[in-house]
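User: I'm putting together a small comparison set for a docking exercise, and I want a reference complex before I start. The sequence is below, and the ligand is acetyl coenzyme *A. Could you produce the 3D structure with the ligand included, as structure tokens?
Assistant: Of course. I'll restate your input first, then give the structure tokens for the complex.
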Amino acid sequence: MGMTVERPAILKGLDDVYVKESKLCLVDGIKGRLLYVGYDIRDLAVHSSFEETCYLLWNLRLPLRSDLETARRAIGEERKVPSDVFALLRKLPKTTAPIDALRTGVSALAAYDPELGDQSREANLRKALRVTAKTATLMAAIHRIREGKRPIAPDPSRGHAEDLLRMTTGKEPDPQMARILDVALILHADHSLNASTFGATVAASTLADLYSTVVAGIATLKGPLHGGANEQALKMLLKIGSPANAEVYVSSALAQREKLPGFGHRVYKNYDPRALILRDHAKALAERSGDMTLFDTATAVQEIMLRELAERRIYPNVDFYSGVTYHLMGLPADVFTPIFAVSRVSGWTAHVIEYWQSNRILRPLDYYIGPMEASYVPIDER
Ligand code: ACO
């Protein structure tokens, strides 16, 4: 191809390119609406649980009570992680970022799954549940291990979010915080063909196993332009320090053409509905803590950004308020992106299982603009 064809249109960033059909998730970027299998995220955030949302994504329908009880119990039981995987995580340098340790841990889990090589839909659904369940335990254990503490065993009788919080902090979870974390997990579960789901789908399209697709998803989520933005957004807000400093900070960042973490989105040209929901929860947590500084700083930054950029359709995205929310729960900034992964693993697996129903290897083109007839010079003659 390359120079032999007329220069094609280069779809940089793959804007507006559709590569598959999906029944999973609609992101209506103009109206600022998000649906999972037709259900509005605002309803799910009030009425659902992470386990029910997983069921919905994997089965394309809401569960009956008995289905949900079975799924909840199965996820609880599958949170157990082989001790060899913890031993492997202990060998990583203490400086390893939790998201890197999580990627390594999920990769290791594959070796312990007896159905790794079974590519039937039923086996993949079972693996999806297992890897989703275990990712939470891994995330919590990674945090404990780097603090020199022992991982806490999962408690299958608890909800996924509540148990994640308990295994991470080592304390009996506060019910309000557990529910807010549950909502955050619901909100992050899927988002159509975002960068990490696309990364997972590229891996899936080669018929790699389900765990490999999740590893590709985590690797892609990590970047500060995607799932890494929540940590960066919090760091920015802590650096700004108070609402009074927001104007100077934002103006100077925009003057230097910086992109503020937690703002902007490829698809949303309106307020990200997930950010609106998390904002309310962040406010409730701030009020309860008796210190509104961080929340008020976020509000001040948001107002200045909207004043400056709403005309260009730049709004807060989910990462702007998730960082604030998790910080107010007492969680350290470098586990924010791993928490995102703990939730999104449900969406990655749902998408790749759907993609396999009508698989085709994803293989785009690049347009070659390098030399055509370079003659090889032996190394001693260069
Ligand atoms: N702050 C200031 N200006 C911004 C921001 C921002 N956060 N985001 C976009 N813009 C401006 C750009 O400078 C650009 O202006 P220009 O046309 O004058 O050059 C215009 O808006 C379009 O932005 P692009 O970066 O071209 O948009 P793209 O769709 O390629 O990128 C992205 C989207 C990566 C999310 C971008 O908005 C960004 O970098 N945001 C900050 C990081 C972030 O919050 N990422 C999380 C996204 S949500 C998620 O992944 C869960």
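Residues 13, 225-227, 229, 259-266, 312, 314, 317-319 surround acetyl coenzyme *A (CB under 6 Å). The chain has a mean pLDDT of 96.
User: Thanks, that's exactly what I needed.
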